[in-house]
Amino acid sequence: MMVRSNKNNQNTDSSDRQHLQPKRPSLDKIGSTLKRIWQYMAEDKILFYFAIGFVLISSALSLLGPYLLGVAVDLLVSGVNQSALLTIVYTLVFIFISHSIVLWFQNYWMITVSQNTVFTMRNHLFSHLQKLSLVFFQTRSSGELMSRLTNDMENISRTLNSSVIQLATGFLTLIGTVGVMLWLSPLLTLFTLLIVPLLIWGMNWITNRTGRYFKEQQKNLGDMNGYIEETLSGHQMVKLFSQEERVINEFNEKNLRVRHSGYWAQVYSGFIPKVMNSLNNLSFTIIVGVGGVFALNGMISIGVIVTFSAYARQFTRPLNDLANQFNVILSAVAGAERVFDIIDEPEEEKDDTSAKSIPSIKGEVEFRSVSFSYQSDVATLKNINFHVNKGETIALVGPTGAGKTTIISLLSKFYEVERGQIFIDNHDITEITQSSLRRQIGVVLQDSFLFNTTVTENIRYGRLDASDEEIVRVAKEANAHSFITDLPNGYDTVLNADGGQISHGQRQLISIARAMLANPAMLILDEATSSIDTITEIKINDALKKLMHGRTSFIIAHRLNTVQRADKILVLEQGEIVEQGNHSQLLNKSGHYAALYHSQLGRTMN
Amino acid sequence: MKKILGYIITYKFSAFIALLLMFIELVVELVQPIVMATIIDEGIVNGDMRTIITWGSVLLALTIVAFIAGISSSFFAANVSQGIGHDVRRDLFEHIQFLSTQKIQKFSTSSLSTRMTNDVTQIQGFIFMAMRIMLRAPLFVVGGVVMAFTVNVNLALILLVAVPILFIIMFWIMIQGVKLFQRVQKKLDSLNSIFRENLLGIRLIKSYNRSEHENQRFNASNMSLMDDNKQALRLMEITMPVVMLGMNIAMVLIIWFGSIEISVGGAQTGEIVAIINYATRIMGSFGVFSFLIMNYSRGKASASRISEVLASPVEEAKNSESKVMSNQSEIQFDQVNYRYPGSRVNALSDLSFRVKVGDTIGIMGETGSGKSTLLKLIPRLYPVTSGRILVDGVPIDTLDSQALRKEMAMVPQESQLFSGTVFENIAWGNNNASLQEIIQAATDANLHPYIMSLPNQYETIIGQRGVNFSGGQKQRINLARAFVRNPSILLLDDSTSALDAKTEASVLNSIKSKSCTTFIVSEKISSVIEADKILLLDHGKLIDQGSHDYLLKTNTVYKEIFKSQQQQGSEL
Asked: Contact, A257 vs A194, CB < 8 A?
């Protein structure tokens, strides 16, 4: 069993990997990712340029300070000239104060820019998500999506805050420092710069290794996070089947893998600051040692050594910062890539350009030779034909997997029809905009979904401008009022998404109230009453009957008693309509429906 | 934080070595300016080339020592941080498995999963840094001041004044920072929960055309996160300008008073240079502070969120007298009350009934009458508020919950699938099941022919949350999972609702042929008509019990339900 499950885990791993790491990030890719991030930043261009302008000033000031310190030391060596020294001291104080002020402003503006950038990216990502088709959500694991949406965005946010300024300052200081150093003593500069090739070689060696392990770590983390999501959402099953041991073991395997790849990623990336630090020390040694020899020969003054030793720090610090930030930047870029992957995901089939929004529909529906498949090799619906008059009730009946839900999904334009056409009020639905269509369709789904907010707000979701009175009214109509008032805070009770406090049927009642509030032209009830007890169902059916009056309604139900009153019943089997007609017509046919009906009736009458 | 730091003990050897190596580096860096002073004062000023070369070589040797120490510390520090991260995740995961259902719902699964992922990563990063720089920065500041004193006492006094003031400022900022970052974290949580809702409820959102509404909701939450984030970060960014100003002014003062000292012969140039060098380096260490503070405050917030989970009591203390259940399974409810935490009314009140071995019990009642809750009390997913549930005369709260549940199988209202194969999903009910047993269970659940029609049959991979299976198929996999467990108590929580009538009939038939005690929660009389006893619930109270025939004769409510269902069946 264990061996077997291992093998299968690997299978799922490899399919996850394809989701997580679609392509290996190349230098080109990093470039284009950065460019895209810049496009978001460009909204605050002016502020950004201001910040960069101040970076320029602060870099210049950071060069002046050590230089003047060196001059001051030389003054000390050459014998004290109080008035000259005083001038330098005043100048230094002025420089240092301005430096701090400029520094604060540049950071303040940069925080604004970076946080605005992240804000816009998040909003963009979220609104794009709203435009993706259902298929997208059905084929991705929610754990992995969550990780992209949260961890990756957070990563980008943190990196933008610190790294951009550091990179800019670093670059400018680097150039400035080397320039002044050359001016002071070209020879000593040459010696100091000896560490640069060492630095480049060392960094290269390290990043060759970190890149690999970071990628592996990311993959293992994604795998582990998916597992956490899954076991947490299924925790009741874990408990009931006493599988704690098993999930703990499986988790630990994944946990160990994360640890292993994480270890090496961290070891190698941990080299970076140390290498930088040592090069720092080395350059200090060179400046003091070689500089000492030069000073002895009168080629430079002691003040130059002081200036150089301060500069060497300034010169390696930006590199050090960069190195410290290197992993962060790399992983943020990788995160940004994943975020952009989602943003690049094609939107739900957009409405045809010719599509018009229709203000109100009457509700005449026709399916003409409609075929559809989720996977190209298996047809889910085959050649579906039927016609519904305005205000009629249509029941879809058939075994699970026969395609009932798919038909209503096509009607709501969740999926694009593959072959054939669907007409509403004689308009091909490809010519109707999604939003104007869905505005007029109310749904109650099998898995009722509630938001983590109050009962009132959950119902109000059906029509956002509804008053509290209207909400109470529909709740009463949907027979939800009495149980709602029994809740700890009545209508103001906050429901949690896991739905611990209320029963499945009660959730369903809230969903029904929500649909009632929406007051749609067409109604879709997808197993809406499957979990509601008979007594309540009778009351609800009465309410629904009122609601359905004059509205075209599609009902999916297993229990035939709810479909008998339908004007038309479509019996589906394996994606095909095998029978259609009303209850008595179908009974007379003595076909599939009649058999189904008698088996249920028989059990009730037994 | 304390609790998390306790995890270091396992890695104390690595931690010790890492700190030791860090210390070696620190000493080298503290010695450097003194060597520099010596080179200037004894070498350059005295014109002694040999001193310069000797001390220059010493500097080089020290640099190499520091390099080796620094590189090696990475191995040990990574071992500590990854080790602790691993251990914390392991303990968290294990702990969560044993938390009560109510607790998990209270935390909410999304919050638990961020705690296990983000928060642990945060801590890991923090520990790695702590091993390598966190202690180093303050130690360097202190060490730097001390070393400056050995060079020149009068000038070092300037540092002694400046450094503590800056320390206090940093400390104040840190305290504020921790608070602000905790607030940011909370905002981030609520933002993430909107994300999550949108992932799970996307179908509803699309159906109701509510993208714009969701966008606005998200926008508002995002905006408030951004504002708090800005505030926190701006506070942190005060540190560096302030520290630089303080240390730079101190350096100017050193030069000014240094010049006076030199003129009276109290100091040498090299000494001044060395002290300025210390000041520069101390400033550098302070620079790391704001970075450290940010990491510390984030780490602390994460640590307390993790500790909160670890500190919440597990479902039950393993009972010392826990017995393995006999598999007779006679069940008795004795004045059982149950109230959901935070609710004002009992979900179940004063329930008393007795179930004989092998009986089938139907549970009927209106939505919200407590049927599912009743069922969840039996495997102790929820602990009773008062009263007792006895299995074979033993109160279930004296039994080890694993032992208790071993004898049971439950099929929940909402089907649950795990990623893996069909085989694995069914074998979830019984890890030792053979393929034969799995096939038998699938056959009983009326699922076998369907599975055989799949390209990979029992090895078909189920995507997360079972996207490639219909509601009825999911339900049947869940049924098969329960059957393969071969339980002595079978709990069906309206588990055939998504099945068509034909399939349901055949599944109920195979259940009938099993010898286990069975509880069937249902809304359809047809599902429970053959039960030995039907419990009729109303608002959490047991209003009647008895066989179908008995209830039909004596209970008007039951008669009404039956009539309505019968009527619907024969209306036309």
From this structure: no
